[in-house]
Amino acid sequence: MSYTSFPPVSLTTVMQTFVFDYPMDADKDETARIEFNFGLAGTAQIILDDVKLIEEFIDE
Asked: Would you state the torsion angle of the CA atoms of residues 51, 34, 29, 1, taken in this order, to the nearest 10 degrees?
C-alpha cells in the first residue's frame, strides 16, 4: 500500500526545508513506516534535522 507518490528532491549544500502531507484512508496500518532513502547520494554527508511526524485529524 502506498499513500503518496512524492516527487524526488534535489539535495544541495544549502539547508532546505521539505514538507510532505499524505492522507491515510484506513483507520490503521500495522505495516506503515517512514523511510529516508539516500542510495544515490554516494559518500556525501547528509544531515537530517528537526524531523517531525505529526498526526492530524480532519473532521468530515
From this structure: 140
